[in-house]
Amino acid sequence: MSKSPNIFLFLLLIFCLSVNLHAQTPFFKKVYLNKENGNLKINTVYKDTKGLLWFGTTEGLYEFDGLESTAYQVEINHFDNNVSTVFMDSKGRIWVGFKNGRIATLVNNELKLIITSLPFPKRPVTEIVEDFAGNFWMSTAGEGVYFYADNKLKHIGIAEGLTNEYAYCAAIGNDGKVYVGTDDGIAICTSKNSTISVERLDQKKGLPDKIVRKIVNDNAGNLWIGMQDKGICKYTISQGTFTIPKQFENWSLGQINALTKEKSGWWIATDESGLLFFDENPTVPLSIYKRFNNLDFIRVNNVCADNENNVWMISNSTIYQSMGRHLMVLDKLKNQKISFVHTLLCDRKNNLWFTPDQELVKINLNDSVFSRYKKLSITPPKQLVDIVSLFEDREGYIWVGTMGKGLYRVNPETFAIQKITGNESINNASVIAIGGYQKNIWLATLNGVTQITLPNNLNTDNLQVSFKNYFGQNLLGSDYVYSIFVDSRKRVWFGTDGKGISCLDGSTLSTYNVNSGIKSEVVYSITEDEKGFIWFSTLNAGIYRFDGKNFVNYSIKEGIRNLSISSIISDGRGSIIIMHKQGIDVLDTKTGKLFYYGNEVGLADINSDLNSITKDKFGNIWLGTELGIIRFYNDANHYTNKPRTILNNPLLFTEEETNINLPLFKSNQNNISFDYFSVWYSNPDRIRYQYMLQGYTRQWINTKDRKLIFPNLAPGKYVFKVRSSINNNFKNASEASFSFTIKRPWWQQWWFRILFTASMLVVTAIILRVRFQRVRNLERLEKEKIGFQFETLKNQVNPHFLFNSFNTLIAIIEEDKEVAIEYVEKLSDFFRNIVTYRDKDTISLRKELELASTYFFLQKKRYGKNFTLKIDVSEESMDAKVPPLVLQLLLENAVKHNAVSAETPLDVVIYDNKSAARLYVKNKINKRRNKEPGTGTGLPNIVNRYKLLSKEEVTIENNLEEFTVSIPLI
What is the pLDDT of residues 952-964, one digit of tens each? Predict the structure, then answer.
């Protein structure tokens, strides 16, 4: 390229440096496990084999799934729950080491201390590991190493071969040996046949530093060792050799506290130099991160990378989360803040051009730390204007569009600036967008579209061009164009304000608007994917994909979070990057899945201008915002990972919630609760679930809930399934399941049914037999009752009874007419009651006593004082039942069989026994010389009637002095 002295330009080169810049910094945010507990201090972080994060704190162990944390403590009075290390064994069991030297395991959601005969150490447990044989090794800060197997604890100290008992860490090598980092090198421990042997790996064997703070196995046959004063080295186990990476040859950044591996390198926690990133490529220098915005993290105690390559670090007893190098911000060049970047461009040489604070800056992206950069002003310092569009022509010159000051062209090597003139319409125009190919450049201004035709030779700083203006809506139908894009087929696309999107293919112009199926005719940003499909964003209608025939819309329904879209761009690897106020949405064009990066990763209210987006040759997406430049790397492998669904053991709801893991439940254990969650720390609040209980439901059911209760499940076989997604696309989603069976109750078991059927047959036979017997008894009772009624009537209407009654009546009439009337009434009542009660099986004792008293009254008038009746019955027995006329019959029987005179009076007593529920009729025996005629069926009739009415029998006692009849009270 040459520089022409005939071109008027104003060039102000601010500075050109050859020093290290303040490099890009990852986005960090604070994470709180318990916002209500401001005194909670974080000691360590650990990722288990499921990808779940555990935090050791001053107040116990915390499980964290991205949204909720669960605390676990040893529930012993005055126990110090200050956790120093966490570990998951091969069986999925969590082990916890405490600073007081105790060790616990998590069992059924409770921390249970390990109990052995040998006392535990009193110094902090620094690390727990499991060897290939399932034995456990615990390093301690001051008491060496402890070996735990078969519920027995064994101490390994100086006597067993350690040269120093201050052990910082432990790791299992691929050779199965245990490597323990101490204050005096590395102790290599092995166990064979209950015998512990210790080897020494120290500076004499090539270890750079005697104090080893951290050892990590990279699962490739190497141990990476973090040291006190010498940084990091690699130990190749098979060769027994140490290698110091080039970046650590002249180490001066202090003590290494922790290191963790991610896909592209290592994150390193230091004691005084913040967080480092180490790329094993020796040409890539270390990246050092000590602060982000107002967050300072000079001392980093621990660091961990999750399965999504998010970085978690502990600094100042606080948790910080970051997407790491996938999302970084360039907010300063040396000590100068970068802000208000309206547009940016990555050229073919991988230089990034951007426009902070109305100036133009060039940095070389091949230099990872931006050791050199150029900054210049397009217009004089006192006349600075916003730069809103950039374009690179085929010769590599940069075209610069301004707001109100027209169009400029910059030489990328000499930085000579030419203002493009020759057309009054663009001299002081606002150039919103620039696009083109080969000999044509298109400009979008507030007055319409201008076409520039280029000469063959562009290698000049005094370029002469020709212009063609399209004003008055004579080309696109709109004077206002937001974007110009040239696709791989050299078609020029225009995004207009209110007239849709237009495509100029050679000399043919096609316009697509609402009549073509587009809901919004305001088009802001345009891009092309690797299949040649055109994508564009609209006002309040999301984005569209155009395959040449059909338009496919992606909006809120499809998962886009915000429709105020400022820019879109294809990453060339199957994704469309969508930029809006809430951050970045990434659309996977193959699956339709959307992934989100917003406030959860530190991106919020980034306020970017239209089309302030570009892509470099490494696939990084660069975004211009008010806060600086954001670099986003869309790792395709990141999206092959899925939210991992984890299903905890179900709970049985009885009197207390019971944690279960057995697949067979009793019939009354049918109220079951399922608790589940998904591990996806990038967007935990976007997780959605589907569940299905096979045997209960047949379809997947959508839910946001993380706990489900199924009450009163019927006996049978069930399979509970749950799966998770971050965008409601559950195809190939991670799924967890639990199969179980609820047993049938005993009365539904086969053996019971057989037994029940047999029993029912037997019972039916018995019932039929009893029924038959009962019918016979009823018939017999009815017969007895009829006979009794007949006997009673016969006795009462027999001539003797009537003759005696009438004689008594005649005698009374002569003596006292009123008494005679009473006698007649009693006699009438007596016969009326006989008729009334004769059809009843039982009547109350009270009524029966009234009937007997009436009969006694009639006989009393005949016998006078020679016949007495004493009734001594308790009130409690009055409501009991007896057969009707039974007492009258017994009184009559006494009169019939005994002499009644002044010399031999007849005394009858009726009394009860409450406890025995019986009634007694007793009289003295004075046998008649001449018996009154009778059938002899009175007492037998009473006995037979009671057999039909009661299980209790009538008893008759005759001791020759007294005659007693005892009848049951029913």
Answer: 999 999 998 999 9
